[in-house]
Amino acid sequence: MKNKLLWRLCALIAVGTVLLFWAIAWLTNHTETSMSFLDKAHQKTLYAYGKEAEKIYLEKGEKALAVFLKEIRTKENSWLAVVNSEMTTFAGTKMLDEFADRFQIGRSPEWKVHLYFSENPVMEVPFVDDNTHFLIQLPQRMRPGSLLLATRLTLQIALPLVILSLLSFMLYRHVMTPLKQLERATKDFANGNLEARAMATMPERNDELTTLAQTFDKMAQRTSSLIYNQRSLLADLSHELRTPLARIDMAIDFVEQDINREQALSRLRYEASTMRELVEDTLTFAWLNTESPQLNSDDFDLVELINVICEDARFEYPDRTLYVDTPECASIGKSSQLALGQALENIVRNALRHTPQKSKVSLTLVSDNQNYIITVTDEGVGVPDSMLDAIFEPFFRVDKARANKTYVHSSKRSGFGLGLALAKRQVAAIGGEISAKNRINSNDTPATARTHAKGTSEKRQAGLVVTITLPKLSNAAFAN
């Protein structure tokens, strides 16, 4: 589901708002209800007035009752009376005009008192005969709800403010917790910790902020990988340049001392060319590795490109046989003839370089519904299985992985270890894939083949198989 954070926040706010209004309404109603009853002490006081009035009336008569009622009236500053069921007053009392028309029966002290009425209600304490009633207008000091205003302000202002503050804090924590983790990871990464990642400390969740953290981690992974690669590339390049620079220094000394001047000048030209080629290959590799370009501007015939490369290779290595098996044509679209040509040239020359004289290198091209598959097989000694992935790394010397170096022409450069690394990046830039595996000699028995694969027996001629898979319409075209 898209916009998970939006829906989660909307649900939290909506549910929180509904619960807030419900809580305020319930608390207000419950609080006002509980505040609408007389205090227990006041109830006892009113009942005591009624019982005392009844006792005086029964024991001492109406005059004594009138005196008692006058004392209570003065004390409570409120109207009171004693009436019978026919609404006839006695003991010197009279009915108030505002109650005369509508009074029927008083309110028990235990009953609820309406807090919003302006006048105080008349409370009743019946005598034992149920025909005589002690009536008293509730004294102001006994009226409940004196804290009603403060309570309403608390429930309608303070409580919502507290609840909304808590809700805001929860929303803040929900949003800011992953953002703070991301901020911390960003600061660590900016301070040089290239292994800093946001998802490592991110709480378990699945929303837009998680996606942001994952995106940051991908960026950090790519950036750190590029930095590590650049550092390694610079270290390897500086190491590779030391040898030709040392030779150049020696050649300059020979020229200055007029020792083998022509040979020294030839060496200078050779080493300068070597360094130029090394720097150009390194810059090309760095560009491919850093920019990860998508090369998809050419449409061409793959067979024609292979034939041109193989003719050049045959001329350079006349003492080896280069066998080519391709269809009449193989059109490929949205690719790069230059990048693919350089990759194929590096792979073919690498195979020829590590194939002994009078031996064969095979190049085959087949196709399926969507891809072209180019296979280059040499008859060298192969590569230890543990190094099959490493041969595509920069400055990895294939010769170091091969068991026998006698196949390399002494008159030709053995390479800088950039050929297959460049080939892999160039093939990737046009949407293809490249892989390598060892070819076991077909004359070996299964047991011998397994032994060769483990590299535990005497090294025997086997070979390396490099496979390139190219989409007929490059995937890079769809990426745009």
Automatic annotation (TrEMBL):
Gene3D superfamilies on file: 1.10.287.130, HAMP domain in histidine kinase, Histidine kinase-like ATPase, C-terminal domain, Two-component histidine kinase, sensor domain
Record-linked PROSITE patterns: HAMP, HIS_KIN
Catalytic activity: ATP + protein L-histidine = ADP + protein N-phospho-L-histidine
Sequence ranges assigned to domain Histidine kinase in this UniProt record: 236-474
Principal cellular location given in the protein's record: membrane
Location of this chain's protein in the cell: Cell membrane
EC code: 2.7.13.3
CDD domains: HAMP (cd06225), HisKA (cd00082)
Residue ranges of the region described as Disordered: 439-458
Domain HAMP: 173-228
Enzyme class: transferase
GO cellular component: plasma membrane
Pfam families assigned: HAMP, HATPase_c, HisKA, HK_sensor
Keywords for this protein: ATP-binding, Cell membrane, Kinase, Membrane, Nucleotide-binding, Phosphoprotein, Transferase, Transmembrane, Transmembrane helix
Membrane topology: Multi-pass membrane protein
Polar residues composition bias: residue spans: 439-448
Bilayer-crossing regions: 6-27
PANTHER family: SENSOR PROTEIN CREC (PTHR44936), SENSOR PROTEIN RSTB (PTHR44936:SF10)
Name recorded for this polypeptide: histidine kinase
Taxonomic path: Bacteria, Pseudomonadati, Pseudomonadota, Gammaproteobacteria, Alteromonadales
